[in-house]
């Protein structure tokens, strides 16, 4: 990346004074002695370690389980700014849920020529099993994570939508606990909006979407070797519902039951944390031992609610992402509040030519990629890596999109050499219910700990920060 780019500094104004909301943090950093911040980060690491807040690096042969790096210096968002982000995420998820309902029913948006049929109907995430299923409420992405970045012009952009099994909310909640514990005086000086009620909101949302007064809810996990297993157990515990594996459930007469010491008990809602192909070996992958045989038959019969719904992945596929602004206009008759990052679709011949001619300047992603895997960051790549990636694109152009190399904003972060700016993004967590969309204020800030890196994923060396949404005027 060119070195003359000016990055948006989240904490400091260009003239060197703190931005609104950052005054108390700036004062704390100014009076901290060498080693104070390092000591706090070590205490935070120990707290994560004791609680087992870990993730797994699948790209390494040994599948190493690691404690997520946490940086004690918070990212702060003024409440007025947050209201715009909240409105934009709400608008976006409303349109995406309407899109998913539409493509599994009347397909109006396809017939109108706004989204090409081939982008939907042959998409590997499109699930014909979902056609014409009438859910209690037309909601498919009950729990979503919208990834946002701030460019050097100060504006926020949506980097991607996560509608399948979005993770990271446990890092948000545990990070807040660390801030309150290790920075009590700084925290008390701010009027910081709370996030601790997220598990309660999640439970309320699952109940509301079920259409039942007192539904039986379970969290379905693929098991302890999953990278987000800590989060699965954490949310089940916080909601007061069972954490189950596929072998704990069975289907009989199109109803789902859980095996308990007191006998079987009917299950009404499954908050699933495993991917579509593994949900039901009778409907999807026949070799899956993680799912529940007959689950999709029970789902189609309306006897169990699966959150998020199977087939939601078609709406967060990177080949569908460029059309979300059009979805908002089509379904809501509104202009998007938050805009996409400009995107070239390699399936289009003219876009493909541009991308191949500018590979050294662009970020190229697999349409089915996630976790920061399979990307080419052109300005950081060697010529050999660029040429190898060029061959991959030419083999299957429809499998790739490209975007400009964005100037992600920076936030002061503690590293071995002291405090330095590091690039960050933001993932608000969105709960979609029958009557409203709810978002706890802040979400998860991910930070690229490697100097110059724009990849914030924990699997690629990233860490996390607490996100404070601050009401101006001091603590109440």
Automatic annotation (TrEMBL):
Gene3D superfamilies xrefs: 3.30.1490.270, 3.40.50.11290
Residue intervals of the Circularly permuted ATP-grasp type domain: 74-448
Cited InterPro entries: ATP-dep_Glu-Cys_Ligase-2, CP_ATPgrasp_2, UCP005522
PANTHER family from the UniProt entry: BLR5612 PROTEIN, SLL1039 PROTEIN
Protein name: Circularly permuted type 2 ATP-grasp protein
């Amino acid at each position: 990346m060119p070195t003359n780019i000016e990055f948006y500094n989240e904490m400091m104004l260009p003239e060197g004074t703190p931005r609104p909301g950052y005054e108390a943090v700036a004062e704390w950093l100014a009076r901290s002695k060498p080693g104070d911040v390092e000591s706090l980060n070590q205490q935070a690491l120990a707290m994560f370690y004791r609680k087992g807040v870990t993730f797994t690096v699948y790209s390494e042969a040994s599948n190493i389980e690691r404690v997520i790096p946490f940086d004690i210096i918070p990212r702060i968002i003024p409440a007025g700014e947050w209201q715009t982000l909240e409105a934009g995420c709400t608008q976006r998820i409303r349109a995406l849920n309407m899109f998913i309902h539409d493509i599994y029913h009347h397909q109006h948006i396809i017939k109108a020529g706004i989204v090409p049929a081939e982008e939907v109907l042959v998409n590997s995430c499109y699930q014909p099993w979902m056609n014409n299923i009438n859910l209690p409420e037309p909601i498919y992405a009950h729990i979503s994570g919208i990834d946002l970045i701030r460019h050097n012009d100060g504006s926020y952009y949506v980097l991607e939508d996560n509608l399948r099994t979005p993770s990271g909310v446990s890092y948000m909640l545990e990070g807040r606990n660390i801030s309150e514990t290790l920075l009590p005086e700084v925290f008390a000086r701010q009027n910081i909006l709370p996030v601790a009620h997220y598990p309660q909101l999640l439970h309320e949302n699952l109940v509301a979407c079920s259409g039942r007064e007192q539904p039986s809810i379970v969290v379905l996990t693929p098991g302890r070797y999953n990278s987000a297993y800590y989060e699965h157990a954490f949310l089940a515990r916080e909601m007061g519902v069972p954490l189950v594996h596929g072998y704990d459930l069975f289907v009989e007469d199109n109803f789902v039951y859980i095996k308990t010491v007191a006998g079987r008990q009917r299950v009404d809602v499954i908050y699933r944390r495993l991917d579509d192909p593994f949900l039901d070996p009778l409907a999807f992958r026949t070799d899956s031992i993680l799912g529940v045989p007959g689950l999709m038959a029970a789902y189609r019969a309306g006897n169990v609610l699966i959150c998020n719904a199977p087939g939601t992945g078609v709406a967060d596929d990177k080949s569908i992402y460029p059309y979300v602004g059009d979805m908002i206009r089509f379904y809501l008759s509104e202009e998007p509040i938050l805009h996409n990052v400009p995107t070239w679709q390699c399936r289009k011949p003219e876009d493909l030519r541009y991308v191949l001619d500018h590979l050294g300047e662009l970020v190229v992603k697999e349409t089915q990629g996630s976790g920061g895997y399979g990307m080419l960051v052109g300005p950081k790549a060697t010529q050999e890596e660029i040429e190898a990636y060029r061959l991959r694109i030419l083999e299957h152009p429809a499998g790739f999109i490209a975007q400009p190399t964005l100037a992600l904003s920076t936030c002061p972060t503690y590293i071995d050499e002291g405090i330095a700016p590091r690039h960050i993004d933001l993932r608000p967590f969105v709960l979609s219910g029958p009557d409203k969309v709810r978002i706890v204020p802040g979400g998860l800030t991910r930070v690229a700990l490697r100097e110059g890196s724009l990849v914030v994923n924990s699997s690629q060396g990233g860490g996390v920060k607490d996100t404070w949404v601050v009401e101006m005027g001091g603590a109440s």
